[in-house]
Design goal:
Number of domains: 1
Mean pLDDT: 84
CATH architecture: Orthogonal Bundle
CATH topology: ABC transporter involved in vitamin B12 uptake, BtuC
Order of helices and strands: HHHHHHHHHHHHH
Radius of gyration: 18 Å
Helix content: over 70%
Distance between the termini: 43 Å
Largest sheet: none
CATH class: Mainly Alpha
Strand content: under 5%
CATH superfamily: ABC transporter involved in vitamin B12 uptake, BtuC
Number of helices: 13
Length: 266
């Protein structure tokens, strides 16, 4: 197998796995816009880093993490639904991102990588760090699984049972920020949202059990991302768009054959 193909498949699998795991939190917390808001924040940070000749991934992470941190206070101060606040934040950071893209001259390819991604640029170092991230996320989920179970069911009940809901919430946001940043130039800011929200949406069609939810979402992320990459190689299609389309097709198939919906009408 060609080395470029091998690295692309490994990176796609790790990207699908990391997004599938963190996507469970976003889905069950019912804040889908947080993925797209943080993705575009990271994209804006990366683009403006190019303007000022700063490390792009570092500034992308800072931008995404700050967005995640300020979502709660902004929602509380504005007295609005979190998704409404996230929609406004998304519009703002998207404007910042495209403003920076318009100001850049002579670096169109770098901007394109942030917008659409370029999995062919993945190196063994990127694969290693992404693998470490995935292991870290899995260990974190295993250690705090009981707290997550209560937290995701009802935050108020979790607090009364002694769960440190503030720590859990902000660490989840921290993980989302890292995952989004590392996947930004692989999948691209415009496509990353689909890779985060679609795998848990597929998992929801099959189970109520949280352990199975994490497993099915992870598996869906891996199958969708690697399957999309394989199809893009076979038919010479853009990788990111093919991954998203293939992932969406998996979701539509899951809704048609969902045993959960058939049995419970969910």
């Amino acid at each position: 197998m060609d080395e470029v193909v091998l690295k692309s498949l490994l990176m796609a699998g790790l990207a699908g796995l990391s997004c599938g795991l963190t996507g469970v939190f976003i889905y069950l917390m019912n804040i889908p816009f947080i993925g797209v808001a943080i993705a575009h924040s990271a994209m804006a940070g990366g683009i403006w880093a190019l303007i000022f000749n700063l490390p792009s991934k570092f500034l992308a992470f800072i931008a995404s993490f700050l967005t995640a941190i300020f979502i709660g206070p902004i929602t509380d101060r504005a007295k609005t639904n979190p998704n409404i606040s996230l929609s406004i934040i998304f519009s703002f950071v998207m404007g910042i991102a495209f403003l920076g893209a318009g100001l850049l001259e002579g670096k169109n390819q770098l901007v394109t990588n942030f917008l659409w991604g370029n999995i062919f640029l993945s190196g063994w170092k990127d694969i290693f760090f992404h693998g470490v991230l995935v292991i870290f996320v899995i260990i974190f989920i295993i250690i705090f699984f009981r707290q997550f179970s209560v937290f995701l069911f009802n935050r108020e009940i979790a607090a009364t049972l002694g769960v440190n809901t503030g720590f859990i919430l902000y660490f989840i946001l921290f993980l989302i920020g890292i995952v989004v940043t590392l996947n930004l130039d692989i999948i691209g800011g415009l496509m990353l949202f689909a890779l985060i929200i679609t795998p848990p949406s597929i998992a929801y069609q099959f189970t109520f059990d949280l352990k199975k939810f994490f497993f099915i979402s992870s598996l869906s992320g891996i199958l969708g991302s690697t399957g999309g990459v394989i199809l893009s190689f076979i038919f010479n299609l853009p990788v990111s768009a093919t991954v998203v389309i293939f992932m969406s097709l998996l979701f539509f198939i899951s809704t048609l054959f969902s045993p959960k919906r058939i049995r419970y009408g969910e």
